[in-house]
Every structure is written in structure tokens, then in C-alpha cells.
Design a protein that fits this description.
With 255 residues, this protein is of the alpha+beta class. Helices cover 25% and strands 24% of the residues. The longest helix is centred in the C-terminal third of the chain and has 32 residues. The radius of gyration is 26 Å and the shape is elongated. The model has no long low-confidence stretch (mean pLDDT 86).
Amino acid sequence: MYQTDPPRSPKDVLPTMYDLPSEDPEEPGLPDQFHLLQPRLLDETFRPPNYPSDEIFVASDLNLYYDPRYPLWYKRPDWFAVLGVSRLYEQQDLRLSYVVWQEGVHPFIVIELLSPGTEKEDLGQTLRDIKQPPGKWEVYEQILRVPYYVVFDRYKYKLRVFKLNGGRYAEIALSESRFWIPELELGLGVWQGRYQDVEQPWLRWYDGTLNWVLTSTEQERQRAEQERQRAEQERQRAERLIAQLRSLGVEPDID
């Protein structure tokens, strides 16, 4: 390519974000910004009231080793949760991976965020090469028997929920972009809002009152707003009292 004088900006001549692949063809599903932020929001709002926090393990993009016959086989779910296990490996260390045959407890729910390079595998639409490990769908349904499998299309913002029924996944018909999971006493839905300064639809958890579970930042903001309202109410009450005293001919000492 010939250079111009003066040189043109790289922004004009080099590929843009939209031109470049976000996934390595040899290793599809590598995290982009959405795949980093969305699991974080799921982490922050996943607080099932019927489980203590130290008996819940959640992870994203972490190796999930599932078959002791083939100990090097693994999947890397975009997000998954295991109930009834310690947050720490053997109560003392952060996990490097989740090894089912050591933990003894399978994931309760797995969430995959659809992307062009992984969509067919996520939805069980690929044929298995018998020389290769099974796909995600087969692992979650047939080997791990994960009770709930969720896929979320980040481009269409479509939520699909599959529940294990008679050994096979059956898709749940959703009348709206929400689904209540009674075993968790939580629901999962598509929320239109601002997270990490990005306004768009996000997948997050909601509680039994149909309110979205607040992140720690939202809780702090809510407490600050409540404190501001209390202070304002106190100020107004004080002003009314002063006005009443003055109407009675009493000048209050307000120093």
C-alpha cells in the first residue's frame, strides 16, 4: 500500500473493530467486553435466599472437568453455579478449575452467551466427531445432567431456557423475557438498564417480589438516596417547627 503525503490516519486505512474477528477460529468463544461484563452482573445479583453465601460457587470461563474416564476433557461455560459446595476448594483455596469428580456436586445451572463462533454447539446443532469430545449440549444434558440450561443471544437479546425433563432438555415457553426458578427462589430475566456505564439489555436475577436484585454499587446508591431523603425530611420538619414557633411569637435559637 502506498503512503500518502501527508499520511492518512490509521483510523481511515486499517480495519475497524467491526472488520476484525472477535474470536480465534482455532479457539472460538474467547471473551469480548460483553462476555466479561455480563457474567460479572450475574455474579453480583445471584443471591438465592435459601442458600448461605459460603455454600454457593459461581464461575465464568473456568474449566469444568466432567468425565473421569477422560480427565483432560473440559468445557468452559460462560457462567455456571453450583449449590451446596464451599466457595473455596477444600475450604481454603480459590479454584483453578471445577473438577466434578473431586467436588461430587454437579452445576445446577449453566448459562451460555451466544456468539457466532459457538452458537451451533451451544444449541446442540452440531454433529459429534466420535474422535473428539462431546459438545456442550451433550455434556450438560447427558453427562452432567444440569437441571437448567440457559442461552442468551446478545445480539437479539433473546432468552431461552431449557429444563431437564425425562433425561432430555425441554425448552420452556416464555411469555416474557423472565423465568422463575423455584429451587433458587430467584428468577432470571432480561433487564434494560445501565451497568458499568453501558446502557443496553442485560441478563440478571430478580427476587420473589419481581424486583431486580441490586448490585453492591446499587445498594450503596440506594442507601445514599435514602439518607438524603431522610435528611431532607428532617430539614423540612425543622423548618415547619421554626415557622410554628415564630407564629407564636417565639424566636427559636437555631445556632
